[in-house]
């Protein structure tokens, strides 16, 4: 049995832990061989491989990033892409493929499975926005990094009278902002799921300034005000069409200064949240995902994605897994509002 | 409505986060008053109270320990203890009591509820050994501290040829050792649930020494060899009848040196794992437990303990909650054995 | 003997450690009394005091911020300010004043000493830009925070092909950027002392992209290109006339994208670097500064600032201490250039 | 020019940073070739080499341990050892040797230099006990790890009434204990340089128990009571003649329990302090040491060791460097006594 492994999409702490678990159990328990594909779907598309054995995965457990590299290449959108992948897999003698990635990567996995490729998916999204699993690895690490940053802002906010804004990742969903804000005691949390009322934000800020503490706001990069409330700077998309990191945090700081006459400062964590060594939670989750994925291969249980339900690792259909985004429910957001102001 | 709050048993990161959530929601949303009881059950037993309002809980979210103090006082074992507590609660006008603690504390809570006291329990055990909840706060912090320690041992083990042992908390269950060992890539994990075969341990150690890496063993303080295999030093209990922290780790180091002729060193984390700032996971869990506990009071839903199931905070009967210890299932332990040697 | 203590200027980890040392030794060894002044020079100017005894400094050693609060109030610029301070000190029976702060705070201390006030200075600047001392506390903490952030960026840079920029503090001097960049292995470091050549920066970036790694740039907030090389966005000053945090990092990212056609992302650490618990280096340094400051008071050795020379804590004249900014010498910067590209 | 590099003695965070700096500057600026020797002096003794070029040192800056491995092999004690080294160096065409290590390693370097080998030394001792340099890398990391551990003990000590002991490294000198204790606010610090009075220690412990806080003691592994005061357990040496890690901490805990009737617990950090990623201070120091060492080679300035004086990296004679141990001066210890009890 020869198994291919690839990692697609954005960086995420825990990818190496998952790869290591797949290979260690595959080789030592099942006696499989492995083929590493480089740079996400570009690997099988172009037949770009790398040796993947027990030696290759030694010492990678605590390391961020992925030894396989990643990319956002989508073979579905490439003329004849699916056929080329099937040909390359056949040529390399690859019997099954483990695809570790987010919504896009798993969507491709689903399509390939539909075309007869033996695929097992492992979910990965720092944003925690996949519906079929309680958590994905990388999220806990991102939240802890954000929390430590906001912990540090707190002492400055206490000593001075300055509003401090921390912009965290989350273009479409606010899970990171919600957890960072709850864990670190933010005075306001702003998430994409609920357009914010800038008047209400200013009110919280003003009331906080009346105590001896200064306000701290945690904001998702994808959060935005109720339509028409704030004049947003345009040109905040970069040359690649992505929303600019750092946009909303700084604009919020400007607005607060203008309206309150108090200084406001923004910190933008950006990619700091996606890199570096994973937390214990993410390492254990990624390891257990990897073990379950190679078990699925052994069972011939293809077209599935591994997932966390409570404390169990289960398998769900790739169809179900990629159906819809898991947004923050408004009642979860409401829990955090108790601590606002 | 006047609500009493106490924290009992051993120290645990997240206690302050739970207290803060109870008080913030109780005061700001429900308009309740609070009475803090000092030092666990000794507080209501002796009527020893401390002011507990929004000001008192400011800034405590990131802090380890408990602003209320703790103790292992068991009022059930005190002559007339239950009656004294009921009298003191009545005298102080306390309508309901939130007891935050482990098995012992919650056992007392169950008894008191049986005697007509309005009690809600919040589970707390660093060992993660309560059956009715997926996780308890404090556990994730303890695991991360252990993981960081073992991460550091790895580089020394790589540079030298020395067996390194890390003894972690866990007198009766091995959850901390299992998660630390999986997260940090231990070569052997030893837990109380399964007496270890010292010959097998030596075999792993010897085979590891043959690579350029040296072996790292994570061992629960409560782990022990198969009966008769090792001559254990006696006198490892202290004046208080507790098993001595540091016992098994050092004895294992001695045995490895004797049998392999290679140096072995033990690090003993001890109380380092129970103190200090909680991780994001523990802060969010403790906060959500606190919010749910005060909701239970508002609902008059007494005799319950709050618990985590998947991503939901639910309530379970105190009876059910304290029934039996949650040990590490052998199939979970077997998962980790893939990485041994 | 009654001694006043104040902290002025920006936040800086270690302020509390210094206050604690002053008070502990002053009370326990010399039997002095203390008066805490609130909010920097505003405290003695307005007679705004706070109790400062052994109980008040308990537990503050590991905490960021300052229990005394701070401000940028300059009494020299206030009509009759110096006289008001002298009157208030006399009225409160304060015999000597310990002023903990940066260039501005110590400049006021020097003036007051000239007017006959018994002042001892303790240097504090996160930027490490005071000439009379090898290091100031807060700097080591800021550098470690920056280093950890860049460590995290490295793994993302390795997995993807994206230029990553980390903007750190340092409006006038580049010490933080230099040390963060050297400690974390930046591919380019840009500091205010040496206007950068954007063509050279692009060259480094391009050459790095040719390896399998992506470039990481550490840039001081006050760094700027050689005149005329880049069209800098205006309006980067806020309502208070301060240069906007986040300005140069984002502009550099834009320029790199435009010129190389590769994605670039900026993280802006901002105030995260000034808050939170100090490192061991900063806690020991601040403690030793505090001990030396109260020794100077005991010796009646006023008009002095405590300073670090090698491993010794010495005293220098406040005159000398505030004479000129300690910039990064170009030969120190050149050391780091070995690692560029 | 072909330069050999080796690392000897115990593990120490920063070794890789020093190796990287030597190689990067040597190759990129001076055009040298390098030969890595494996496992300390065993490498040149047995001609055991490893490739050492720019590729080999990529990514090692943040990593603990040493890519070259280490050992305690002393070629002086090996029959004909010096001659064999000279022959091997000649055979490999090695013109100069950079030896990174502690007292033993540098002592060998001095002897070899006396025999005509071109040697430059780089000091490395986690214990900070070399007289000729203000600091050595590894020390700051060890102190920070110890400080974080004691920070965590503090919250437990506050919540309960239990004496907590933290045993840190330092067989002959107490620098680590002194700095950990000052940085983390220990109530007692015990170092090898001054035999402790157990009656005085018990007095501090008792007086601390009278407050609402519990005592925390930081003790060097090499600290010991005044002769005859405590009956020390024998057999605390291991099979290799080393003093057992964990000895004095646990014995102190036993003594405190016996004398005070209060519980006491010991944590033993052991090797955790020598491993893992270095702090910024250690990375910058190790890097600057490496740069200076290769400059010394370029200058043909052999028989020297690089050293830190204030903020400068200088060169001193290997003779001077290895003359005597740098113990903690009693006046530095006295500084810390202000905070005892």
From TrEMBL, chains A, B, C, D:
Q: Name one GO molecular function term.
A: fructose-6-phosphate binding
Activity regulation as described:
Non-allosteric.
Domain Phosphofructokinase, first and last residues per copy: 2-297
Q: Which GO terms describe its cellular component?
A: 6-phosphofructokinase complex
The record's family statement is: Belongs to the phosphofructokinase type A (PFKA) family. Mixed-substrate PFK group III subfamily.
Which controlled-vocabulary keywords does the entry list? Cytoplasm, Glycolysis, Kinase, Magnesium, Metal-binding, Transferase
Task: List, alphabetically, the HAMAP family matched.
Answer: Phosphofructokinase_III
Residues engaged in binding diphosphate:
10
Q: What is this protein called?
A: Pyrophosphate--fructose 6-phosphate 1-phosphotransferase
Enzyme Commission number = 2.7.1.90
What does the record give as the reaction this protein catalyses? beta-D-fructose 6-phosphate + diphosphate = beta-D-fructose 1,6-bisphosphate + phosphate + H(+)
Report quaternary structure and partners. Answer: Homodimer or homotetramer.
Give the pathway listed in the UniProt entry for this protein.
Answer: Carbohydrate degradation; glycolysis; D-glyceraldehyde 3-phosphate and glycerone phosphate from D-glucose: step 3/4
Give yes or no: UniProt keyword Transferase.
Answer: yes
Q: Which cofactors is this protein said to need?
A: Mg(2+)
Question: Where is the protein localized?
Answer: Cytoplasm
Q: Where is this site: Important for catalytic activity and substrate specificity?
A: 104
Q: Where is the active site?
A: 127 (proton acceptor)
Residue sites binding substrate per the record:
125-127, 162, 169-171, 221, 265, 271-274
Its gene name is pfp
Chief location = cytoplasm
Residue positions annotated to bind Mg(2+) are 103
Q: Which organism is it from?
A: Actinomadura rubrisoli
